[in-house]
Amino acid sequence: MDEIRIGVAGLGHRGLHWVRLLQKVPGYRITAIYDWIEPLQERALGEISYRDDVKVFGNYYDFLAYEEMDAVGLVVRQLEQGTMAAEALEAGKHVNSEVPGAYTMAECWRIVTDVERTGLVYSLAEQTRFWGFVDGWKRLVDDGMLGKITYAEGQYLGYYGTSQWFQDFKTGKQYPVEELPDHPEAEPAVPQFLPYIISASYDLSILLKVLDDRVTEVTAMSTKPPSYTTPQMLNADIQVALMKTERDTLIRMLNGFNQPRPHGDHHWWQMIGTKGSVEWRRSGKEKPKVWFADTQMNDWTEVDWRYQRTDAPPEARGSGHGDADYYVHMYFRDAILKGEPLAFDVYRVMDSMAPAVLALDSIEEGSRLVQVPDFRPDADRPPGQMPADLGGIGGRVHQTKMPGRR
Length: 406
Hints:
This protein is α/β, with parallel strands linked by helices. It has helices at 13-22, 38-45, 60-64, 81-90, 105-118, 132-142, 200-211, 325-337, 346-364; strands at 4-9, 28-34, 55-57, 71-74, 94-97, 122-124, 149-157, 166-167, 174-175, 187-188, 215-222, 239-245, 250-256, 267-273, 276-279, 289-292, 301-302, 370-371. The chain contains nine helices and 18 strands. It is globular, with a radius of gyration of 21 Å.
């Protein structure tokens, strides 16, 4: 096989981006698309140069049964996202899933054991870990220049109330808060039902890659829903998790998408070590900073670290998210066509997903300290076998009625 026949499931804003990008990355051919909102199907077809060769589905299970498809690009925003990934694996399809990968521990374990049983490729399209500065920071840590990292922070804050939080599910069109009086047909969109702390998996993935570590316990807190600044938003404004890793590093993760913020400073990170510290920029007017304790530095110094990689090939440029979107498709392709192992394999995926999922349990249980399991097989859990204890429930928001169907 020299080409992956891929079906794209979910044709919203990100799904449309995948449809465009997969036609530019060598080694892919889109053979099917799926979305339960029919107008989005036609919009996606309009972006495919060979649209007459693409099969269209409005039912997810019919989509999975399509034999002219080797892999699924799962670009949905549904609480059942983890279940949908597992169902695709069980249908014999490789899976490249948008973040987040799952909302419950049962889904996390189901994906892991499905990969172990089938040998199929499961990849989480978490593009931020491929940003250029991440490898720069990792080199500092690996070379011991920062000493032992004792504390790290990551946060993802943004304001999306003017874009995607309300939707007409007949047409697929989205409306900002300001236009709601003129569009009574608009309902709370799916993202309003998704707990924000789950997005901690983005920035946690970066920190765990740099530290080569995994989280062993987590506790979390949340402000009360709905939003204080935008009452039409059903979710809480801020959710925070405090974590501890296997190598004894404390990590704080902060997430929120309801409150106004300057555009462009959604993500921020810092790491504090026994020999130095690094910190991302606070605004577009600044640069990231570094300080080394043993080099006679009296203050921070700025470094021109960026999202874009200095070693990016031409085909990566302009792919999205600081050129990083290209890499999630490149590595997924090479894992299938060349058998190359994924550096961000299913176990490392769950290292970044499970702490976020279990933070939901902690919030619901009064900030109880929750233990995070290691998903790797051991003497008590052979490959392909579910553990006796799933390690928490996670994702109690499943109890909330939300739009969407498969």
